[in-house]
Design goal:
single chain; alpha/beta; Rossmann fold; TIM Barrel
């Protein structure tokens, strides 16, 4: 075939029905609906999307209308995203050294952990290149202190965002805001607005909600609800809605559901533009600062190098969704202080996305996808409905006081945890493919804050007290407020980490009694080995047992206190319940489980023979592991 013939070739036209037939054929008789999956947002994902799934009002160009495809027509080619990884340091000199190295190696923004930098003195703070790079700092408890340093130093120009989300930060600790706190915050932000008009100081941080289990549309709706609170509050302080919008920075955590997280940022811009329209906010003020960090919710101490894959995927989805700045967590940050390798990998992930994947040279690569456009539209609709429901219930503060938000988040967190426990969702290295030989992260002690001062001190008094040796911690403001139900967070891997720690402490081991040939027992033995490993139990397999006597001999030689019997159903019929009764006669204290599930009548016979339990697909792995570890711990205590 010559080149002209190749050019003339055309693919035959294929309809959606043709695709469906091909898919059903590969499913061997199952309907296409078998491939539909549900999400925590209660959205049903289809295996195939086409033109009919795309909204008729989908935006064709970035920089227009609802800004679904981005605030700028040129995307990252017009305004590149900032690599703003958080620098973790033990003291001022360490911070400056690490920051200098990071900026030299490709980072282009200043960000550091405020609580760990609490001992940073005014002199050390002033030595940072604040005017040369944008700042992206979550000030947490130290907003007033950092603001005092900035106002005392008076650099010519500051850009970026420095702030504390008083709502989500306090809610995480079970506190609500006082009038005194709000007044001091408003005074501080007003002074910063005068001194540094390009610095954003109103932080809306949805990370605490994300870490408490929130789904994508809840994160969007809570960000909108907080924005309404800040707009209405600062209007009373004399700010215009446009001035407020210009100084807002919205910060998201990116979860592990790649396309959902990309759609989350796109849907937020849609909802945000609609909110701005309601307040009469127009022009550049609508182009709110949006930042993202990779999720701590999805990190694990177990098989920590898998965290590199998680953060890489999460960073990728953030860039596709459109961010002003990106913060990637080191894979080993759960150790307390990341290693130099962990910090280097975190810094390089955005550089790879920008310089090797060339994502900085593509304008909205997600645009036009039937799937992503459909997902974005659905998320936007759900988020707006949830946002209006929060407003009808009195707004975000009222819903936190009543516990409405906490209740919703707790239900979702329980659902996510349950799905991991029964392996409906997988977390590599944690509930599946657990490696008991890995070197575990060693936690280092956390930084301890210096005593806090009274919140009644005013900003100008703080500034006047600053000397070269004054530290952030010495200007720390004590939190005060009425108590509420805390927005409780928990990393997904934590229950498994606790199991593994206990199993390691007691030296938990299990035996697998393999019935028949390798071909007959391997499938169930592999499954049980994986299940037990996720709970921290190391296993020892027997040779293929052809008789009851061989199984009894394995129990005698191995000397363990727990065993699981594995084989085909035919092997169970061959050996029968007498296998259990014989083992129990010679080793009455041994605990015996069976892999798989038998009919009720047979199950009763095995139990009557002395069988203690079962291991099967869909079982709650955490509950089973707790049961076994408690047994093994009790046996160990009596030895």
């Amino acid at each position: 075939m010559d080149i002209q013939e190749m050019k003339a070739q055309r693919f035959p036209k294929v309809t959606e029905q043709d695709w469906e037939k091909a898919a059903e054929a590969s499913l061997k008789g199952k309907p296409l609906a078998a491939l539909y999956t549900g999400t925590y947002e209660e959205i049903t994902l289809k295996p195939l999307y086409g033109p009919a799934d795309r909204s008729p009002n989908v935006e064709q160009y970035p920089g227009l209308s609802l800004y679904t495809r981005g605030f700028y027509s040129g995307g990252y080619m017009e305004v590149p995203w900032k690599n703003a990884n958080v620098i973790r340091a033990e003291n001022g000199a360490d911070l400056k050294g690490k920051l200098t190295a990071a900026l030299h190696a490709g980072q282009d923004a200043i960000a550091f952990e405020a609580e760990e930098a609490a001992a940073l003195s005014f002199a050390e703070f002033s030595s940072l290149p604040l005017e040369e790079h944008p700042l992206y700092i979550d000030a947490k408890d130290h907003f007033l202190a950092i603001a005092s340093f900035l106002l005392k130093q008076k650099p010519d120009k500051l850009t970026g965002a420095v702030g504390t989300d008083l709502i989500s930060f306090y809610a995480k600790q079970g506190l609500v805001l006082t009038e005194q706190t709000l007044a001091l915050q408003a005074e501080t932000m007003t002074e910063l607005k005068k001194a540094f008009p390009e610095l954003k100081t109103i932080r809306i941080d949805t990370v605490p909600y994300h870490e408490a289990g929130a789904n994508a549309f809840q994160e969007i709706s809570l960000a909108l609800a907080e924005a309404v609170f800040y707009i209405e509050w600062l209007k009373e302080e004399g700010w215009s809605p446009e001035e407020i919008a210009e100084r807002i920075c919205v910060h998201f955590a990116m979860g592990s559901q790649f396309f959902m997280e990309t759609a989350k940022l796109r849907a937020f811009r849609q909802c945000w533009a609609t909110l701005c329209e309601a307040y009469g906010i127009t022009g550049s003020a609508v182009k709110v600062s949006i930042g993202a960090e990779t999720s701590s919710f999805t990190l694990s101490k177990l098989d920590s190098h898998v965290n590199i894959l998680r953060t890489g995927s999460e960073a990728f989805s953030a860039v596709l969704g459109g961010v002003e700045y990106l913060q990637v967590r080191p894979f080993d940050e759960l150790s307390g202080m990341p290693s130099s390798l962990g910090q280097r990998v975190a810094k390089n992930i955005p550089l790879i996305l920008k310089s090797e994947a060339h994502l900085g040279k593509v304008t909205d690569p997600a645009g036009g996808s039937y799937y992503l456009e459909s997902l974005t539209a659905e998320l936007s609709r759900l988020a707006w409905e949830h946002f209006t429901a929060l407003e009808e219930a009195g707004g975000v503060m009222s819903c936190l006081r009543s516990g409405k938000i906490q209740k919703e988040l707790a239900a979702l967190l329980e659902k996510r945890s349950s799905d991991l426990a029964v392996r409906k969702k997988s977390m590599v290295g944690t509930n599946i493919y657990a490696d008991l030989t890995e070197q575990k992260l060693i936690e280092k002690p956390a930084f301890s804050l210096l005593p806090a001062e009274n919140e009644a001190d005013v900003l100008q008094d703080r500034i006047s007290k600053i000397s070269e040796t004054a530290t952030i911690a010495e200007l720390h403001v004590k939190k005060s407020g009425d108590g509420i139900i805390p927005v409780k967070s928990q990393r997904l891997a934590e229950p498994f980490e606790r199991l593994r720690e206990k199993a390691e402490r007691i030296g938990a081991k299990a035996g697998i009694i393999c019935l028949g040939t390798l071909k007959e027992f391997k499938q169930r033995a592999d499954f049980v080995t994986g299940m037990l490993a996720a709970g921290g139990l190391a296993v020892q397999w027997s040779e293929g047992c052809k008789t009851v006597e061989e199984a009894v001999e394995f129990v005698k030689e191995s000397g363990l206190s727990y065993y699981c019997i594995c084989g085909r159903d035919e092997s169970y019929n061959q050996f029968g319940p007498q296998l259990v009764s014989t083992i129990k006669q010679s080793h009455p204290s041994v605990r015996l489980d069976l892999a798989g599930r038998l009919p009720e009548e047979e199950k009763t016979q095995w139990q009557q023979a002395g069988l203690d339990g079962w291991i099967y697909s869909g079982q709650n792995l955490i509950e089973k592991a707790i049961e076994l570890l408690d047994h093994l711990e009790g046996v160990s205590a009596h030895e």
